[in-house]
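A quick aside before the break. I want you to see a complete sequence-to-structure record at least once, exactly as it would be stored in a machine-readable document. Don't worry about memorizing anything.
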Amino acid sequence: MVFDAHGHPSRVLRVDEAFPVAPLGPEDVLVRFTASPVNPSDLNVVEGTYPLRPRAFPAVGGGEGVGEVVRFGARVDRRSLAGGDEETNAFADEDENGDAPIKVVPDVPFLGTWREFAVFPAASLRRVPARVPDELAAQMCVNLPTALRMLQDFADLGVDFEAAPNRERGEKTAATATENQKKTVVLNAPTSAVGRAAAQMCAARDVPVVCSLRARDTEGAWERDAAELRALGASLVVRDGVGNENGFRTRAASDFFQSAPPAVLALNGVGGASSAAMAGALAAAGVMVTYGGMARAPAHVPTGAAIFKNITASGFWLTRWSEAARRADAERSSVASDENDSGEISPESSTPERRLGANDENALRGARARMFRALVGMVDRRELAMPTRAVGFGGFLDALEARQGKVGAGKTALWTST
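That is the input. The structure line, written in C-alpha cells, reads:
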C-alpha cells in the first residue's frame, strides 16, 4: 500500500503490485510480512499531520507489523537482529530445532509495513519468539509497549508491570487491591488496542481499572462492548459523555470510587470532554497521560481539579521514549567497551528505578530489552487477547473507508495471505 503525496488515506493510498523490493545488501535482511495493523498514527502519517514523514515518495504506509526472515545479507545473521545477540538463551530452543521461522518486528518507527516483501537493515528489526501468535506479535511495536510504558512509568500503582503477577489471577475486589496498596487506573478509548491492552495488564495484576466507553451506534452495541470489557477484567465501565451523560457522576461510579483505592492515573486517548471527565475523577495528585486524540479536541484538566486536587497532565510518545532508551543503550555499550579491558565494570547494568525520569539515562539503559521480555511473558501467560479484523490488499481501502469516523470499529490489520 503506497501513497505518492499526503492526503486523505482513502484518496491517496493505492495498491502497487509492481513496487520494487530493494536489493539485498550485506547488512540487510529480506522480510516477508504476515500481518500489519492499521493504527491512527499510520493514517496521520499518510495525511501529513504526524511529526514523522516519509523521506521520499512513493512511500509505503504502516509502522507496525510482524514478518519472517527470508534471507540474510552476507555480513549479518540472526544475532545481528535487535534482541538476537543479547537474548540468545530466549531463542536457544528455536535455533537448535531449526524448524521455527525467524520472526521479526520493526525496531524503529514507520519502516513501511503495509507490504508483503521488504529489505531492511538487520539492526532495524527485532527478533521475537516464533511461538508468539502473529496477531499479538504484530502489535508489539507500538500498541502493547505504549500501554506498558504508561502504566509503568507515570504513577506508582503498587505493582511492577514488567514482572509476572505474584499470585494467581482471582476475583478482583476493591478490598483486595487496598490491602495490597494498589491504586486505581481510569482510561478512555478502552476498545482501542492500547486501551484494551492496558485494561488487561491491570486486570492480570489485580489493579482496579475503570473504563470510560463512548457511545455506539446503538444501545445494544454499547452494552455488548461494555460486557466484553468487564469480561476482560474491567472493574467498572461508565458512559463517556458530558453533563447527565457523564458516567463518572453516576451513583454506581460514586460508590465504586468511595470503596476502591485512589485513582491516581488516567490514560487519555480521546481528548476533549472525555479527558476532562477522567481528570475530574482522579484523586489528589493524580496524573492524566495523553497518548492520542481520537476526538480531535484538546485534552484538558478542569480548573478545579488542577487547583484543588493538584491534578497534572503529561503526554507520552513511544518514539521519543525509544530514542532516549537507544541512546542510553549505545552509551552503555561504549562505556562497557572502554572499561571492560580493565576488568572494573561489568556490562550488565544494575536494576533501575521503576519510575523512569524523562532524562534518567541510567534507568533507561536496557529498558527496551526488559520491556520486550515483559511483553513476551504476558503472551506466554495468556494475559492478552488482542484480536484484529483481517483484510487483504484487495479489501484494504474499502475497510478503511468503512471504519472512517466510526467509534469502536475495532483494530484492522493487513494480512498478506488474506
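Two observations worth writing down. The radius of gyration is 22 Å. The CA atoms of residues 165 and 205 lie 5 Å apart. We'll return to this after the break.
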